[in-house]
Amino acid sequence: MSPLSIKINAVFDEPACEKNRSKDAKARQKGCSKPLTPGAAAGGCPFDGAKIVLQPITDVAHLIHAPLACEGNSWDNRGAASSGPTLWRTSFTTDLTELDVVMGQGERKLFRAIREIKEQYAPPAIFVYSTCVTALIGDDIEAVCKRAAEKFGLPVVPVNTPGFVGSKNLGNKLAGEALLDHVIGTVEPDNIGPYDINILGEFNLSGEFWLVKPLLDRLGIRVRACIPGDARYLDIASAHRARAAMLVCSTALINLARKMEERWDIPFFEGSFYGITDTSEALRQIAKLLVNKGGDPELIQRTETLIEKEEAIAWKKLEAYRPRLEGKRVLLNTGGVKSWSVVHALMEIGIEIVGTSVKKSTVEDKERIKQIFKDENHMFESMSARELYDMLSEGNADIMLSGGRTQFIALKAKTPWLDINQERHHPYAGYDGMVELVRQIDLAIHNPIWRQVREPAPWEYQPALEEELPGTQSGPETLHDFERASLQQPAVSASVEVSR
Fold first, then answer.
1. How far apart are CA 440 and CA 437, in angstroms?
2. Are 433 and 273 in contact (CB under 8 A)?
3. Bridge-partner residues for 356, per DSSP?
4. Could you tell me the residue ranges of all domains in the chain?
5. Which of 262, 370, 410, 471 is most buried, taking the most CB atoms under 10 A from its CB?
6. 265 CB burial (10 A radius; 0-12, 13-18, 19+)
């Protein structure tokens, strides 16, 4: 069995996943994701999933060992933000051609590409990604990376995630395995403190983690590594010296959190920074874990003081929106942690949730939704485009919150829509992020354009106009009669149209 196959089997057998533990050995080997059907693989491949997890490491060079299209299709696939380095925004690819494949030049070309990146950019590390083509032709990227690391004196990390081995979620987990095997634990920090934590599965989309980090700074809690959002290579390499960890997205990096706890005794919990209540609870859990690991018990009291102050400020800002949004109905078509955390956040201000998608949610996510709603009627595994359109066009929801793939369904149904997935342009985490989310929902629902597009078109008024005009027949039956009636009263028709 190849090393990649062994790694995949280990990822599928996840002890921290309750759903996996309930399966027999044969069913466990099939993994948690449903097999993709032909023509329905729009969710992304393992290479795409690995790139999502690792590309936000901002000072690293990400080299794609593949034909050009692989990098072209995956570049900038998430709206992560950086507070400093911009090297991660540069695309690097070996651009394999048919001639390279036929002549067996792939490994040699990869080695030269690593050397050029080292000489021109001098990054602290280079991540090398394999794809379908290079895996099929048998290029040994691990051997090339090992030789290049010895030759050039910098870490060269192989990320073995060819697209044909599974789903995007598998790629997320294989990226976490690459960090465990080659990065985390390779650097010993000289500034270890009692209040160091790791944040796992936080991507800093639209810079939203920057709304949370100041809260931790005020408590004296240092984020040693945020993986992967706005991360630096050396921070991740020394992440094994953190005292506790918070897992934001369990579907992506639960294997990373569990193995860091097993190897370095870093306890973790799964939480959310979406919504006032969940943000406060996350801060309490972080403080509790740090105190259990030997921190000053006074940290818990300081955390409660901060929570009380920040919650008061946030609720005061939200009160202005409550009369405008209370009772409004929201359809949530997303998945993962947002399937329950955003639900809880919106219900806090009186918004009604008519349904939430759980297609990409874990068993634990679904259990949280059941606890919030007290039933399963608001959960749907998957809803076709036609069903979404029917639900929106019939007025069952005042707004849909989803990703960009379904925005045109809402627009066709003449229903407000707001992006809450990775392509969004506004940060929604923390107390200030919750206020921003509510503000954006208010702007979308009360935008005057929706009242205008829902009105009948001007030509649909014409039969009513004909009834009002003196000396004309009520509602011409044919197009010929309609044209003749319009010609008889041109001035009056024009003036009525303008007045309307």
1. 5
2. yes
3. 332, 379
4. 1-32, 42-182, 196-315, 322-453, 459-499
5. 410
6. exposed
Instruction: Give the architecture-level CATH label for domain 196-315.
Output: 3-Layer(aba) Sandwich (3.40)
Task: Kindly compute the dihedral angle of the four CA atoms of residues 280, 286, 290, 296, in this order, to the nearest 10 degrees.
Answer: -10
Both structure tokens of 304: 């409660």
Give the separation between CA 55 and CA 61, rounded to whole angstroms: 9
- Could you tell me the pTM of the whole model? 0.81
The two tokens of residue 443 are: 């702007």
DSSP 209: G
Q: Which two tokens stand for residue 29?
A: 């080997």
Give, in degrees to the nearest 5, the angle at Cα 230 between 211 and 58. 160
- Taking only the tens of pLDDT, the chain with its 500 residues reads 677 777 777 777 676 665 555 555 555 555 554 444 444 445 578 898 899 899 899 999 999 999 988 877 556 656 788 888 889 888 899 999 999 898 888 999 999 999 999 999 999 999 999 999 999 999 999 999 999 999 999 999 999 999 888 888 889 999 999 999 999 999 999 989 999 999 999 999 889 999 999 999 999 999 999 999 899 999 999 999 999 999 987 667 889 999 999 999 999 998 889 889 889 999 999 999 999 999 999 999 999 999 999 999 999 999 999 889 988 998 888 766 666 677 777 887 888 888 887 766 666 666 777 777 666 666 777 677 888 888 888 888 999 988 877 888 998 999 999 988 777 888 999 999 999 999 999 999 999 998 888 888 777 766 555 555 555 444 444 444 444 444 444 444 333 343 33
